[in-house]
Amino acid sequence: MKKISFAVLILLFLICGCSGNNDSREKSKQMNYDFKEPVTFPFEVNAIHTEIAIDNPDVLQQFIFHYKNIQTTQELKYILSKVIDQPEKVSEVNKQTVHLENGKQAFYEVGESSQSIWWESENGFLARFVYYINGNKNQLGDLKIDVSELIKLANQVQ
Question: Is residue 61 within 8 Å of residue 82, measured between CB atoms?
Answer without folding.
Answer: yes
